[in-house]
Design a protein that fits this description.
By secondary structure, the protein is of the alpha/beta class. Helix content is 35%, strand content 24%.
Length: 184
């Protein structure tokens, strides 16, 4: 399986970039769901990027080697499986920075995105989906993510620092850079 990963802090535009890639190659790219033992939140019930499992179901899939990468966050398990990518399709996912070196997939194209805390705060505020205290918490986590991503920048196939002048051109740049990966 081929896999495209997008890594970046909250608010940097990972979802926007993934949507652009899926629009460009709708017949070739399949976004991979994360399997998790974390109970679904109310706003996640109709999303298809999470599959909720019991701890026993998750453990069984993990023992079978179903996941290409796993993580544990706040006592909940997360696993990314390549079983939902038929034939010659390419998997697509977001990935936290600390997971990059743990992917069990030989053909991976990695995209790293960073931005300043002020830029991220402005984007998250503009979304209008969270209150200021939630945004502040996200920015605190984002600072650590940006530091990790910058430390790993040589490990990415593509790396962008997102700001007001670059954000509109990043999708076009990514599509051009990924075109060769998509046709190999």
């Amino acid at each position: 399986m081929k896999l495209i990963t997008v890594t970046g802090p909250s608010g940097v535009g990972k979802g926007y970039l993934k949507d652009g890639l899926k629009r460009r190659w709708p017949e070739k790219i399949r976004e991979l769901p994360w399997y998790t033992t974390r109970p679904m939140r109310e706003n996640e019930l109709h999303r298809n990027d999470r599959i909720n499992l019991s701890a026993q179901e998750y453990d069984l899939l993990e023992r079978r080697g179903t996941f290409v990468v796993t993580d544990t966050v706040a006592g909940n398990n997360y696993g990314l499986s390549d079983t939902s990518v038929p034939g010659r399709m390419v998997g697509l996912t977001e990935l936290r920075p600390h997971l990059l070196g743990r992917i069990r997939c030989d053909d991976t194209f990695t995209i790293g995105l960073t931005a300043t805390p002020d830029f991220l705060s402005h984007r998250l505020t503009r979304r209008g989906t969270e209150i200021k205290t939630e945004i502040a918490k996200r920015i605190d986590v984002a600072k650590g993510d940006v530091w990790q991503i910058n430390e790993m920048r040589d490990h990415f196939s593509l790396f962008y620092h997102v700001d007001e002048t670059s954000e509109s051109s990043i999708i076009v740049d990514c599509i051009n850079a990924i075109s060769h990966f998509m046709t190999q």
